[in-house]
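Deliverable D2.4 — example input (structure tokens):
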């Protein structure tokens, strides 16, 4: 496993920056404990900073822009706590639902 600290730097204001885009093809598992939905959350800002989805944050760093409205960070590898930038892409909720249907685990209560 790769040391995650080699991917992040924290400046004097406590802002976390992704320093490199690894070309590793295997999953890089987050050092943070996954939440109920399987995703990992952390605070890019020290102290009172709001918690953000780690995959989302990494994707935004990789894209160099915020994720578009209605889109979210999706995983090619289906490993929700994977933080390999090569495995994370910008996808829609709709794609997600369709994927769920395809996998036969769609719930009947989605909107
Ligand atoms: Zn992965």
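Example output (designed residues):
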């Amino acid at each position: 496993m790769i040391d995650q600290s080699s991917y992040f730097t924290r400046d004097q204001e406590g802002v976390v920056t992704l320093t490199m885009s690894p070309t590793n093809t295997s999953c890089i598992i987050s050092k943070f404990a996954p939440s109920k939905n399987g995703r990992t959350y952390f605070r890019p800002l020290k102290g009172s900073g709001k918690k953000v989805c780690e995959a989302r944050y990494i994707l935004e760093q990789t894209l160099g822009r915020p994720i578009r409205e209605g889109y979210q960070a999706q995983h090619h590898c289906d490993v929700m706590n994977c933080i390999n930038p090569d495995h994370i892409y910008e996808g829609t909720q709709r794609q997600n639902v369709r994927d769920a249907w395809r996998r036969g685990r769609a719930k009947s209560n989605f909107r």
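The two ends are 39 Å apart (CA to CA).
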